Amino acid sequence: MRIRAFHTEGFRIAAIFVAIFALSAAIFAVTTLVIVGEEFQDQIVRFANADIASVKDGYRTEGIPEALEVIKQRMTAPGASDFFLLQRGASHRLSGNLAPMPPRTGILNLPYPGGAHGHAILGVGTFLAPGLYLFAGSDVYRARLARQRILRALLLVFAGALVLATIGGWAMSRRFLRRADDITRTCRAIMAGNLASRIPLRGTQDELDRLSETINAMLDRIAALMGNLKEVSNDIAHDLRTPVTHLRHRLERAHLQARSVEDYNQALEAAIAATDDILALFSALLRVAQIEGGARRAAFAQLDLEQLLAQLGEVFYAVAEDREHHLTLLLSGPAWIQGDRELLVQLFSNLIENAIIHTPAGTRITLRLQRENGEAVAAISDDGPGVPREEHAKLFQRLYRREASRTRPGHGLGLALAAAIAELHGGRLKIDADAANGFSIRLRVPLSQAASLHTNSQH
Amino acid sequence: MRILLVEDDPETAEHVCHALREQGHDVEGCRDGAEGLAIARDGKHAALIVDRMLPGLDGLSLVKALRAEGSQTPVLFLTTMSGIDDRVTGLNSGGDDYLTKPFALAELVARVNAIARRGDSRQPVTLHAGDLEMDLIRRTVHRGGKPVDLQPQEFKLLEYLLRNTGRLVTRNMLLENVWELHFDPRTNIVETHMSRLRAKMDRGFAVELIHTVRGNGYILRAD
């Protein structure tokens, strides 16, 4: 685990930060040391210049004795130079605590008397008068000491920061690794067949949490599709058994009992019809599964629901009338949506046919279309006996058929298919729970962008 | 007429060949796409029946290649029932009609007949059958000189029947071509509209033009 932690992205980032910190700390330290050093030197030179000025003053007003007096005072006073030398000629010392030396002027570095380690003298040399040389200076040891102390403190802080950054980086990468391990573990669990497994969320809303959330959402979608597939295969297995069994019985009976050619023909015709029915159920199941799987958006185009419904109205008006139903269309203007014409025709045909098939003669069926908050809302309602509210959810299940309608044509797939088509169009199909009487189902589909702009500009 | 069937499933091929030969057609069979393309190139077939899934060269590519070479031979695609986008892609790539397996033989024969004769039909202004006359420009219908008042849906239905005079049209062909319904409705849409159409243009006349072919569909015949 520790070795792995050093190979993670988290640790790499931490290492980069440590390096950047180290570099900036080094630049800071060098700058500080240079500034401190220069400041100390300046101070020594300032003291020396002040001392020289005082001595010069004394000399100018009252001559050498006063100069000697000033030097004596200065040598013991705080805030003045440590070392003085007043020299006549090349080697005659008049005063001071330095050995005579060849006179040089300006800022000078002199060796420390006795040559102690770390000590040196910095000072200023000048001539008070021709042949009268004055030097004032101080030990630089204190400056060096201060620089060393500062350097030591910086190194200490730097080392501490390095340790903290390393620990922090390691901890961060540990945290990252744990999350990555969570994701890996979840994926492995799913690969091993535990499809319900999901990545635990920390609730921190950080990048990893968002990534985990996205992966979980993807897994939910996949699980839903898988569930769907499973359901379809179960449906096929269960619900095709019955019609196939019936077909077998029919053929068996013909085999045993049919006597004449006509008997056989009748049995064959019935068998072909039964087979067609089974195949139709197969196709219908596959179609629902395919549409639920989200296939087929390729055929999407701009279309006007009003025009589509008007055309369907013409198709079904006569059918409804033949069955003594009254079909009324209440369309309120064009409703452009993005959709698959063929599938939408099937959706509305299913709903209209449901209303015609499952209600008694004399029922009024109304097909309404309007635009509402950027959506096309199509409602198909009838004033028939309706469906108890507790059965509403079941109506959308595949192959669910109400007791009363088992003898009527259909496979119990119509609403499942219609709901799947609605969802494919980004819409939803809902049974009105509070319909006063009869049955009412409502489709809401978003109006297409261009169309809603058009609609808005009309208002 | 001479028909080429490109189908790799031997049982389906046998079944279809048999049915078409019964109808008096001269059927040539072939199991491979590339071979099918080579045979189709001689251009002497009245119609091609092409399965979508074929070894060698798939059906879509076969038809695209033929169309690219300028061939106008009518094509009927066959396919398994799985792909719901297939019909559109099939028709877009140059197919004339589309039939999903499994299909009734009568359906296949009717569709082959319909597409095979589509080739020689130009765009007429009027359609006739016996004493029935349809004016496609003015959208009027007369029978025995008397005007027949039809609803738009009934007009479309009669037009389709007239364009296929003498040929069987199946229920599915009517649903797809007249009402654009590509699924099997649970209500008797075809029967309802057909009976209304008949009531207006057939009933009360000495000769009935529209005949029901039991279990298969309808045929409009003048004789």
Question: How are the SSEs ordered, and which strands pair?
Answer:
The complex is a heterodimer of chains A (459) and B (223).
Chain A: H1 2-5, H2 9-62, H3 64-76, E1 83-88, E2 92-96, E3 106-110, E4 121-129, E5 132-139, H4 141-191, H5 207-239, H6 241-257, H7 261-292, E6 301-304, H8 305-322, E7 326-331, E8 336-339, H9 341-357, E9 364-372, E10 375-382, H10 392-395, H11 414-424, E11 428-431, E12 439-446, H12 449-458
Parallel strand pairs in A: 7-9
Antiparallel strand pairs in A: 1-2, 1-5, 3-4, 4-5, 6-8, 9-10, 10-12, 11-12
Helix pairs in contact in A: 2-3, 2-4, 5-7, 6-7, 7-11, 8-9, 9-11
Chain B: E1 2-6, H1 10-22, E2 26-30, H2 33-40, E3 47-51, H3 59-68, E4 75-79, H4 86-92, E5 97-100, H5 105-118, E6 126-129, E7 132-135, E8 140-143, E9 146-148, H6 152-163, E10 168-170, H7 171-178, H8 189-201, E11 210-213, E12 217-220
Parallel strand pairs in B: 1-2, 1-3, 3-4, 4-5
Antiparallel strand pairs in B: 6-7, 7-8, 8-9, 10-12, 11-12
Helix pairs in contact in B: 2-3, 6-8
Key structural traits:
heterodimer, A: 459 residues, Beta-Lactamase, 3 domains, five-stranded antiparallel β-sheet, 12 strands, disordered C terminus, B: 223 residues, alpha/beta, Rossmann fold, Arc Repressor Mutant, subunit A, 2 domains, five-stranded parallel β-sheet, four-stranded antiparallel β-sheet, 8 helices, elongated
Q: Give the N-to-C terminal Cα separation of chain B.
A: 23 Å
> Could you tell me the mean pLDDT of chain B?
87
Annotation field: number of helices of chain A: 12
Q: Biggest sheet of chain B, strands in spatial order?
A: 2-1-3-4-5
CATH-derived topology of the largest domain in chain A: Heat Shock Protein 90
Strand tally of chain B is 12
- Tell me the strand percentage band of chain A: 15-25%
Count of discrete structural domains of chain B: 2
Query: Strand order within the widest sheet of chain A?
Result: 2-1-5-4-3
User: Per DSSP, what share of the residues of chain B sits in E-state strands of 2 or more residues?
Assistant: 15-25%
Tally the helices of chain B: what do you get?
A: 8
Quote the distance from N terminus to C terminus of chain A: 66 Å
> Which architecture of the largest domain in chain A does the CATH hierarchy give at level 2?
2-Layer Sandwich
- What does the overall shape of chain A look like? rod-shaped
Reported for the largest beta sheet of chain B, the result is: 5 strands, parallel
The proportion of residues forming helix of chain B, as a percent range, comes to 25-40%
Net shape of chain B: elongated
